[in-house]
Hints:
With 88 residues, this protein is mostly helical. The chain has one domain. The chain has 4 helices and no strands. It is elongated. The relative contact order is 0.12.
Amino acid sequence: MTLLGDAAHLRAPNGEGANLAMQDGAELGRALAAHPEDVEAALAEHERSMFVRAAAVEADDDGFYSIMIDDDAPHSLLALMAGAAQDS
């Protein structure tokens, strides 16, 4: 069994879970195409690359988690979103 998308990546609600889910599907398809006769090898290849990608996203999320659960939440999250809207 292998997990994809939100089942495999517990993410803050900032869109990265959806991005990882789409990339998981594409990467799994590539791995299956590369190993059409060996599903286990395809899954192992997919999971190795998935863990590396997910770890990189996780490393960038520390500030977002803090904003979501700090003492000023949810106001800190709203301020972040308002600032992003003003920057665009």
